[in-house]
Amino acid sequence: DVVCGVNSTDITFFTIPYRNNKFELDSETKISGNTLINKLKIFKYVTELFIDILNENFHDYYFENVKSLNIYKISDYWKKSRIDQKQKEKFFESLPVIVNLPNLKHLDIIRIGNIISSTDLLNILKKARKLSSLEIGKTSLISFLTNDELCQYLNKMIRILIINEYPHEKSMDFNQLNKFCQ
């Protein structure tokens, strides 16, 4: 079977299963092909997934072997770039349905720092038992310090914490960092 994948930058034809270990679901990605295709096995070799939170067709896919997940939102003034609460809730509710979270080892949420809540991250951590690496923006990390349960999960699970800091931001102080070392 040959499948056609269309996204905002290219058109890709591939046989099933998709053989590359990386895949991107941007806001315009659509996969088409024989309707009798078993969608559960199309992306069985994908271990690194990039997914735009604005992709409204994400529920059409399943990624069973993803080890690294990068959730982002494109800031494109020409395209729809706002996200409402309903879209956000739908995305985070559907995430465990499209990605086998228990296999996840790395999570990058730097580009959705203003969207993801501490509760959303906590829910991911509870399902992603192998997660040990997290990339997060400094502002988001500081805002999550008030959620004690999340801090406990982060302390227990995360061995590699990559904090993205913008040049104009004030550095984290020792007391803030110390909360993650308890």
Could you walk me through the main structural features you see in this protein, from its secondary elements to its overall organization?
With 182 residues, this protein is an alpha/beta fold. The protein has a single domain (43-181), classed as Leucine-rich repeat, LRR (right-handed beta-alpha superhelix), CATH 3.80.10. Helices cover 25% and strands 22% of the residues. The protein contains five helices and nine strands; from the N terminus they run ββββββαβαβααβα. The chain has helices spanning 85-98, 118-127, 138-144, 148-157, 174-178; strands at residues 2-6, 11-15, 22-25, 30-32, 48-52, 68-72, 106-108, 133-137, 160-164. The strands form two sheets. The chain has a six-stranded parallel beta sheet. A hairpin with a 4-residue loop joins strand 1 (2-6) and strand 2. Helix 2 (118-127) crosses helix 4. The chain is elongated and about 55 Å long.
Put the structure in a nutshell.
The protein has five helices and nine strands, in the order ββββββαβαβααβα.
